[in-house]
Amino acid sequence: MYTVGFTVPLPSLPSQPNLQKQERNPPWIPTPQLLRKYPILRHLSSCKTLKDLNQIHAQTITTGIFSDNFVASRILSFAALSPHGSIPYARFLFYRIRKPDIFIANTLIRAYAFSPNPIAAIVFYSEILESSLVFPDVHTFPLLLKACSEIPSLRLGEAIHSQVCKLGWSGEVSVSNFLVQMYASCGLIDSAELVFDRIPECDDASWNIMMGGYLNCGVFESARRMFEAMPNRDVVSWSVMINGYMQGSCFKEALRHVRVMMEEKIEPNESVLVNVFSACAHLGAMEQGKWIERYMERKNVRLTVRLGTALIDMYSKCGSAERALEVFYRMKEKNVLAWSAMINGLAINGQGKDALNLFSQMEVQRIKPNEVTFIGILNACSHSKLVDEGYHFFHFMTSVYGLKPNAHHYCCMVDLYGRAGMLNQAQAMIKGMPFQPNSAIWGALLNACRIHEDTELGEQVGKILLELEPNHSGRYVLLSNMYAACGRWDRVAELRRMMRERRVSKTPGCSFIDLGDAIHEFVAGDNSHPQLEMIYAKLDEMSQELKVAGYKPDTGQVLLDMDEEEKETALSQHSEKLAIAFGLIKTDPGTTIRITKNLRVCTDCHSATKLISKIYNREIVVRDRCRFHHFRNGSCSCMDFW
Predict the structure, then answer these.
(1) 561 pLDDT tier (thresholds 50, 70, 90)
(2) What is the rounded distance in angstroms from the CA atom of residue 614 to the CA atom of residue 607?
(3) pLDDT of residue 485
(4) Is the preceding omega at residue 152 within 30 degrees of 0, hence cis?
(5) Phi then psi dihedrals of residue 392, to 5 deg
(6) How far is CA 350 from CA 340, 411, 637, 638, in A?
(7) Three-class SS string for 73-108?
(8) Calpha distance 476→462 (Å, rounded)
(9) Which contiguous run of DSSP H or E holds residue 597?
(10) Which of 381, 364, 468, 392 has its CA nearest to residue 420?
(11) What is the pLDDT, as a whole number, of residue 114?
(12) 388: enclosing H helix or E strand
């Protein structure tokens, strides 16, 4: 059984007072020498809006100092690179400069390369080459290659590589590094290796970029070997490795690397900390997330918007909306992402009305919501049966904020109507969409058919889904559940035959439980755990207690046509029941048990867990693929509506 946990005692950690490093001034801030020559540029330090920049720009024109490229470059840098700037305005400035130099051009190329539209960097570069305004230097090509990586475009990347060779800059380490990144981003790891092997003298960035390339292409073993062979492994190297595992959904391996990193006395940077919280969120490992939060407090790490949002997300996805709210109200600065994360956190934990109240506070604070905010709002309405409110907010986002609903919003509305049993309205919503419904939208309707036992409509929707996603095992299973529930074993057998012919394997049920020092994983019918005998003894005890309480197994959930006793045995060994049994053994009475499951909780496990929470006087929090279930005293927060 593979487990991972933080076992490094707090006193053994490095003791520097603060992890936050001094940041360099932004490129638009003038040097002291330039400030003495042109005092008007001091206003750039306090510039917060494009209107402010317009006024500063106007003054540099009226005083005649805009003709100095050092002044013009500072104005353009603010427009291009500041979060309060405007790239179109920076472009306007560039073509108003009498003799722009390559430094100014590179500033605009950088802005484009890191923008949502990186191909604009290549277009702009082509324009200035054709007009012979400036000639590229060695700093131009890393930016262009960065843009090619972000697109990604192998054709453009090879064209830039060709020009690099013609100009004789292929030996420059900075250029080679970004060539490695470009080829890896385009999936050509062999070409990336070839460029890396030809670098005359690799620097730390070379090793990190090549390692990141392996991770990007899923070649984890090569990345691990390179990491272990690195001459200098600093926090950036660890961050690249951990981020790569996160991108590959290897969350336990990411946490293991964090633990080893801290054992080696390497202090995590913000990127690592955010990844730790994300890994804990995916695994439901709240105790390990709390450990890292305590570490941050001990190190006086400033709770930035990014860290605070990651913490909110982690606690929310571990089923503790209360702790998420504590973090939210502790944050000194909150942007729309933080507000949206908290609204969604309340939504998935079944606190729909609290989510709507928080949205009202957001409006009072004049924080403009975005598309993600309304996904959280509509989720809140869906999970809490707030049909009228959901209808209102679906139209409100367009009428008040001018946001057009996308597929996610329509999916929420279909889910809202479907869960409430309003299947006709759900179908009407799909028919009225301005684009073709995707598989998620049809899946929401199929789940509604399951909940409300509409086999006829479910069969129609199921056929559509099997055409859209013939290799998605979950669609077969959900349709099979519907057939099994009404005893149509011939259709169950037909679906199993289709799965065999299409080589579709059912995703096994898997549950995780975090006990602070380690994360334990269970699969249905598990016989690999070192404490197997104790777990099954507890499982037998639970079964006896459940029978006394009047529990009857829902054998309709078993997709095989077997006798009732075999079905009951199969149900009793579902992964979440094994995890709950282990939690009852390993935690003190009264302790909340938190389980994370990779699939939707079945009806039988849901009914059983409600009774277990009452019998053993425990709160049991289960996060399945769709939502949270907070079981307390024989009832569930979802109100049997999931």
Answers:
(1) very low
(2) 11
(3) 79
(4) yes
(5) -60, -50
(6) 16, 18, 6, 6
(7) HHHHHHHHHCCCCCHHHHHHHHCCCCCCCHHHHHHH
(8) 8
(9) strand 593-597
(10) 381
(11) 96
(12) helix 387-399
Cα dihedral sign for 525, 528, 530, 533?
positive
Predicted pLDDT of residue 599:
87
Instruction: Return d(Cα 593, Cα 613) in angstroms, integer.
Output: 10
Could you give phi then psi for residue 522, rounded to 5 degrees? Answer: -130, 145
Is the Cβ–Cβ distance between 240 and 208 less than 8 Å? Answer: yes
Residues paired with 265 in a beta bridge = none
Contact 191, 183 (CB under 8 A): yes
> Cβ atoms within 10 A of the Cβ of 52, count?
15
Determine which helix (DSSP H) or strand (DSSP E) holds 360, and give its type and residue range: helix 352-364
pLDDT at 562 over 60: no
Is it the case that residue 16 has pLDDT exceeding 70?
no
Q: Which of 348, 341, 390, 392 is nearest to 370 (CA)?
A: 341
User: Residues 324-340: pLDDT tens digits?
Assistant: 999 999 999 999 999 99
Rounded-to-integer distance, Cα 361 and Cα 475, Å: 39
- Residue position matching structure tokens 């100092």: 65
CA distances from 182 to 78, 162, 372, 386 (A): 28, 13, 30, 48
DSSP, res 435: S
Alpha carbon dihedral 595, 601, 605, 611, in 10-degree steps, equals 70
Pull the structure tokens for residue 356: 């709507």
Confidence at residue 571, expressed as pLDDT on a 0 to 100 scale: 63
CA 632 vs. chain centroid, Å, equals: 29
Neighbours of 137 (CB within 10 A): 14
Residue 413 is which amino acid? M
Mean pLDDT of the chain: 90
Give start and end residues of each alpha helix (H) in 469-596: 473-485, 489-501, 532-548, 564-572, 575-586
pLDDT for 457-470, tens place per residue?
A: 999 999 999 999 99
d(CA 9, CA 161): 49
Rg (CA), the chain: 29
pLDDT digits (tens, 9 = 90+) for 368-416: 999 999 999 999 999 888 999 999 999 999 999 999 999 999 999 999 9
